[in-house]
Specification:
- The strands form 2 sheets. A 6-stranded mixed β-sheet has the order 4-3-2-5-6-7.
- It is globular and about 50 Å long.
- It has helices at about 5-25, 40-50, 100-110; strands spanning about 1-5, 30-35, 55-70, 70-80, 90-95, 115-125, 135-140, 165.
- It has about 190 residues and is an alpha/beta fold.
- Helix 1 (about 5-25) crosses helix 2 (about 40-50).
- It is built from 3 helices and 8 strands, in the order βαβαβββαβββ.
- The longest helix is centred in the N-terminal third of the chain and has 18 residues, at about 5-25.
- It has a domain at about 15-140: Rossmann fold (3-Layer(aba) Sandwich), CATH 3.40.50.2020.
Amino acid sequence: MRIAYSREELAKRVAGLGRAISSDYKGRTVDVVAILENSFLFSADLVREISCPVVCHFVRTEMRDVELGGARWPEVFFSTPPKLEGRDVLVIDAVLHTGVPQDFLWRRLEECKPRSLNLAVLFDKAKDHKVSLKPTYIGFTSASKYWVGYGLAGRNGLYRNLPYIGSIGQRGAMGKASRRRTGRSIV
């Protein structure tokens, strides 16, 4: 396994995101909606870096293929989202790949009429987006499709416990990731 982002790099980046979020939400309470399971470590570290009051909510996502009219379609299922009318909401996920599940949740949360709604992701894979959803807070941009560690699982749920982000070799190998920072300028 090749280490792509060390524990120290992740901590520095998450701290920077926490400072930016704290500045943007200064004087307000942030209702964090963490999408499980991949984001559990990132979410935990990020909320500890936010200096304003935080209320945590958790939703679980599941994608299934369903048969409709003789064709198979992906369908997104979420646990019931919290009631967030008039609240400042920050959705946290580890990876924005196609964006389909996050966009579905986003639309459901918009129906709750929050005061504000933003998205924070550790990795944004913008070239793979299939929806127009754009994160407000981005840790890293990435071309790779297969990261493991820091909450992200490989086959059979392995590697979530690693304190770093790594890529694993040949079959299902990771491409070179762009390590360029985008989104908000965070130091």
